[in-house]
């Protein structure tokens, strides 16, 4: 359970760095290329993360906007402070809005990293849930 999280299903990391990557094809998801190239949209990304009560964790997020050949055009990275053992277990959110990124965007690469702070064998590391990529049209 992740108190405060919008979803109670989560990806849990372990004692070594764990990595999860999701590649979102914006065109396959229904965003037409002309709209992506129009400079009238924002790409909003968000991720919820937290720790177990009895074990601290470290979390990292890297989101990259890629062109049709999967070359990086722009990126966002977050490295929040680690959650210490026996501290508040509540959920935290990381979010970012990409604007004015130019033409040619096709994919969003959503990469999460995490591990526990105690090197305990098993899944005691970062809890990650309710990741999202949203495309918003900006009104002039």
From TrEMBL:
InterPro entries membership: F-box-assoc_dom, F-box_only, Galactose-bd-like_sf
Source taxon at top rank: Eukaryota
Any Gene Ontology CC annotation: cytoplasm
PROSITE patterns membership: FBA
SUPFAM superfamilies membership: Galactose-binding domain-like
Pfam families: FBA
Protein's name according to its UniProt entry: FBXO17 protein
